[in-house]
Amino acid sequence: MRKILIGTNLLSVLLSLFLFLVDGFGPFSIALMAVSTVLFYVNFKSLSETILLLLVYPFSWFFLTVPLRNKSLEDFVKVELPLEIRLDVGEDVLSALPVKAILVVGDVGEKKRIVATIVKNIVRGIQVEQNMKYLKILLKDPHMDVTLRATMALEEIENHFDQTIALCANPKDFCAHLYFYLKTDIPKGALRKDIERILRQSLERVSEHEPVRYEVLHYVTKDEEHLWLGYKKTHNKELLARYLFEKLRKRDYETLTQHLNEVREIFLREGRDITR
């Protein structure tokens, strides 16, 4: 009986995926999602896991299938979690090389070339912490030429932020650059504390309707409620996604359940927009 339930559930999942690809969030695909959820509960008898499945289901279909159905939404689905604030990012930066592969099997020339891509990503706020990890790996490379290039890259990054922050007059961009600089983990000790203090003070000059304000507040305070407040103020879906991600990471299923209806409404709206 258990095998029959699992097989039926798998069939309903595959059929709902097919219907979503064809017709978006139509009544049949939603009905099949509901059937799959009920079968999951009957099979595993876990209310908390069923609620989590019901929350994640629309997210997974949306992010996995939108690129196949509508190429024009490519920029939207490139949003990462955790959220990264970006300034003016060129297409050449977004089309990044397979950095991890080069770190493992690349030759000296390839590793030296990839350093330039890593630097561009960091100074433009693209996955700053992850790219800094890549750079630190290159700093320990057994080839002296690679180590030297990575060391020079650290100096480039520090000089860039020193100059950019000093010349930046726009409060929003000023805070963004300070935020990126902190995420590099280059500032240490008293310098880091001074930058955090300046960042907090500068945020007061950033409009309450700017998502960057709440992303930075979350980074500085480690309190995800700033993300929720930011979503309520700006209706920015990225802040909501980051908020739910933090709650999921902390296994706060009660809060996730409370916001389930709001999340489902957002993705249902997105589904209707996609089918136009």
Kindly describe this structure.
The chain has 276 residues and is mostly helical. The protein has 3 domains: 2-77, no CATH class; 79-191, no CATH class; 207-276, no CATH class. Helix content is 77%, strand content 0%. It is built from 16 helices and no strands. α3 (47-69) packs parallel to α16, α7 (108-123) runs antiparallel to α8 (128-139) and α12 runs antiparallel to α13. The chain is flat. The relative contact order is 0.09. Mean pLDDT is 75; it is low at 66-84, 86-97 and 272-276.
Sheet with the most strands, sense and barrel status:
none
**Spatial gap, N to C terminus:** 42 Å
The structural class is: mainly alpha
Mean pLDDT: 75
The tally of domains stands at: 3
- Annotation, overall tally of beta strands: 0
Q: What radius of gyration results from the CA coordinates?
A: 22 Å
Please state the overall shape, judged from the principal axes of the Cα atoms: flat
Helix content: over 70%
Helix-strand pattern: HHHHHHHHHHHHHHHH
* Range of strand content: under 5%
Low-confidence stretches: 66-84, 86-97, 272-276
| Tally of contiguous helical segments | 16
